[in-house]
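Q: Hi! Curious about what Neutral/alkaline ceramidase-like enzyme looks like structurally. Here's the sequence.
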Amino acid sequence: MSRRQHPPLLLGATTLDITPPAGHPMDGYAGRLGPATGTADPLRATLVWLSTEDDSGVLWLSLDAVATTTELATELAEAAATATGIPAERVLVCASHTHSGPSGWSGRIHPVMTAEREPDLVRALTTTVATAEIARIPVTASWRSTEVRGVGTNRHHLDGPHDATVGILALTDQAGTTAAVLVDFACHPTAYGAENLLWSADWPGAARDRLDSPVVGFLQGAAGDVSPRFTRQGRDAAEIGRLGGLLATAVNDALAEGGIPLPSIAPTVRRTTIRLPVRELPSPEEVSAMVDAAEAAVRSGDGPAARIARTRLEGARGQAAMLAADLPAELVVPITVVSLGHVAWIHLPVEPFAIHGRRLQDGSEYGVTRVIGYTDGYFGYLVDAEARRTGTYEALISYFDPAATDRLLAAATTLSIRAPSHDVSTDLIE
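A: Let's find out. The predicted structure is below.
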């Protein structure tokens, strides 16, 4: 009796220019002065759709934006569904977290950021996605990961936790040519600083432009406490290119060497939501004392230490903004797990720390688990007990306490219980 043949894996992929005109406010830095004055490099939306003829699979829509609200993510998922005909619940909207994009797409994503949604920008963005032309072609899929040093580190401690691996899903057409890649890596795209007033995808855009593939989808990993703070050698276009080039070189080398074949089946998508309580905030008097102490630390600091002190000052002031906001008692947080063979991607609408990513990888039953933040909404930073104790910027402006973080990670781990088929024993990593 012959073995049942799977229908071929189909890829639909395209990259769209979504760069707004100059004159609109920018997102990412609370201290930025002035709207965008032009474009350093284009902002992109990339669609990577994997399916078969009998299964609509999954579509990753990666967006050069600091984040998306659940409202914007829903609108973009519906726009992608219009373009492709697949159900909107099969679309994942993933922000790169660049700090040089517009604030008008999502509006105020957190009380520390003063921004308003701009309907004209949203309409232009969703129309561009909804009218995208996407033809599907048969492809084979393979997986590889490799290490990349020099792009980012833990931003609190140079030798602190940081996943330096890049995950690479390569999609190859029948002629043996790379048709698209889906790349994930964990590091804040903050090579450009608050003084930059030009639209930019930051180093992920530079990496994308240098990769040996016509379509590159970029997914931001567990980057909550990871940035180029200790690795960047400047804050200009040349440095953007240098950092992006480091990642691109590693990925291109991995593509040339090949990876582990994945089954020709449509990816599986599993979704759930969890209700998490918003943490109790300190009193106004306590917040005022924190601000005073942080201001004193800034005056006495120097170099990277001064930058850390400034972020703590921003966090202390952020708590004051949170006190003034009408925060709900709880938040409804979506979780999604996508799997293809032995590889799984856990998608969360938060900024996980590197240690959170490791916990999810350790708890997953898949051979390879990649943790992706900034997906289908934005609910700020996750924290741990140490961050809370030391009063890091992330802990100061987080909606959640460590107990709520543990509940979210437990729910994501439960969702990542592995399906019993398509077992491949090991990742391929140098």
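A: A fun detail: The first strand starts at residue 9 and ends at 17.
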